[in-house]
């Protein structure tokens, strides 16, 4: 980025800002739609918090499976049946 002329960097930043504004607008519209369907903002925030917690727990489980696979000299995929896991889990 330091090799680019300042105009190019400025233009890239303007594009990025515009993309972020568009994403914000799309998310605001999605929130408005969900609220129109009867969801409350508190419900949505709780749901998002639970999804983050789920993803953190899943990541920890994947890390543990990976370490166990290394110890056993197998692939993580080979451990799934042993723990009754589906590949989509």
Automatic annotation (TrEMBL):
GO terms for biological process: double-strand break repair via homologous recombination. Residues 10-37 form a coiled coil. GO terms for cellular component: Swi5-Sfr1 complex; Swi5-Swi2 complex. It comes from the Eukaryota. The keyword Translocase does not apply. The keyword DNA damage applies. Keywords: Coiled coil, DNA damage, DNA repair. It holds the Pfam family Swi5. Component of the SWI5-SFR1 complex, a complex required for double-strand break repair via homologous recombination. PANTHER family: DNA REPAIR PROTEIN SWI5 HOMOLOG (PTHR28529). Belongs to the SWI5/SAE3 family. This is DNA repair protein SWI5 homolog. It comes from Anas platyrhynchos platyrhynchos. The lineage of its organism: Eukaryota, Metazoa, Chordata, Craniata, Vertebrata.
